[in-house]
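Re: that backbone. Tokens:
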């Protein structure tokens, strides 16, 4: 039946070794009242054939699902191998997920206000999933956050998608699934440099979110650094390999150095409120020696992160409203725009 509603269909091959498909996870999150996650319409495995009748009705007797067959032939001499070793792969089922939350990629954000507002929404999704559903997302990345327009709201809200890599937590608040999961440039420093016996925590997800914000600020917020400086900082923070032979440390060195002295972020003249927020949360994560007493324990308590994120977001939104009310521009941060990777999306729009 046609409803004339726009939905998003995700077509994938779900590993049968996983505890729950993504649709079941979304059902649990929504039932527990977790906000800023996609609304579920339907999900299920795809049958190999459909009954020749109208309407099509499936029963348990004739519901044979589509599954991959590679694992049945992995030992055959013609099967692909890596360095002479057979690839270990489990059986996967053809699976589809339909959600009624459709949005835009995070990189389409209009400015500082929308970036902070959307990622603050995602911060709440992470906290609520942890406190209400005892679950970690484990793959907070640029591609897994979308912007959703609601009514005539001035800024779009952030929605955290792709929960198929998520995992429940145990009584200590750690993931019951061990090892690294996620998108490597955004994985927390502790996880990227850990062995496969470490379990992720809520703070790992929050740290990943901070790296997403930094990445967005590098590429899509105005600043006064030239293109060569920008490329160097992006490389050091997200792509540098050191030492080259150790794959586990590909994305760790620049993050570790920046946590020590913020050398890859402190010299970017982003809007002042954004700079203050970023410097503070990085000091929470790794307090410099003179500030250890002031910031001790604040990273471990998400309430402190919530407070500064909320305060900064409100100030930036208020500042933007003042500008649109034709208050004089000096109320905005004075920035020498030497390098602006992306122009405003429409004439007269402020990319702050």
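Recovered sequence:
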């Amino acid at each position: 039946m046609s409803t004339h509603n726009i939905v998003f269909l995700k077509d994938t091959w779900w590993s049968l070794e996983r505890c729950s498909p993504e649709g079941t996870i979304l059902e649990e999150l929504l039932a527990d009242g977790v906000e800023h996650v996609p609304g579920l319409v339907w999900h299920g495995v795809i049958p190999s054939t459909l009954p020749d009748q109208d309407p099509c009705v499936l029963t348990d007797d004739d519901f044979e699902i589509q599954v991959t067959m590679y694992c049945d032939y992995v030992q055959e001499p013609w099967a692909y191998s890596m360095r002479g070793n057979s690839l270990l792969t489990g059986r996967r089922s053809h699976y589809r997920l339909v959600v009624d939350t459709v949005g835009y990629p995070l990189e389409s954000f209009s400015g500082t206000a929308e970036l902070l507002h959307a990622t603050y929404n995602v911060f709440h999704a992470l906290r609520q999933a942890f406190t209400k559903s005892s679950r970690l997302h484990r793959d907070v990345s640029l591609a897994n956050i979308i912007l959703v327009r609601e009514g005539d709201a001035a800024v779009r809200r952030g929605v955290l998608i792709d929960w198929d890599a998520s995992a429940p937590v145990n009584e200590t608040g750690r993931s019951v699934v061990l090892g690294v999961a996620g998108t490597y440039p955004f994985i927390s420093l502790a996880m990227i440099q850990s062995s496969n016996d470490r379990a992720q925590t809520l703070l790992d997800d929050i740290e990943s979110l901070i790296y997403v914000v930094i990445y967005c600020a590098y590429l899509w917020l105005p600043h006064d650094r030239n293109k060569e400086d920008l490329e160097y900082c992006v490389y050091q923070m997200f792509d540098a390999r050191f030492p080259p032979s150790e794959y586990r440390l590909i994305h760790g060195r620049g993050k570790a150095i920046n946590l020590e002295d913020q050398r890859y972020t402190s010299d970017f003249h982003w809007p002042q409120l954004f700079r203050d927020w970023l410097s503070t949360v990085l000091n929470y994560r790794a307090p410099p020696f003179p500030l250890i007493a002031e910031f001790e324990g604040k990273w471990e308590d998400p309430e402190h992160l919530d407070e500064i994120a909320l305060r900064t977001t409100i100030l930036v939104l208020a500042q933007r409203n003042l500008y649109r009310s034709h208050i004089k521009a000096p109320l905005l941060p004075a920035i020498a725009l030497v390098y602006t990777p992306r122009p405003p999306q429409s004439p007269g729009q402020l990319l702050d």
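The domain at 104-331 is CATH 1.10.510.10 (Transferase(Phosphotransferase); domain 1). The two ends are 44 Å apart (CA to CA).
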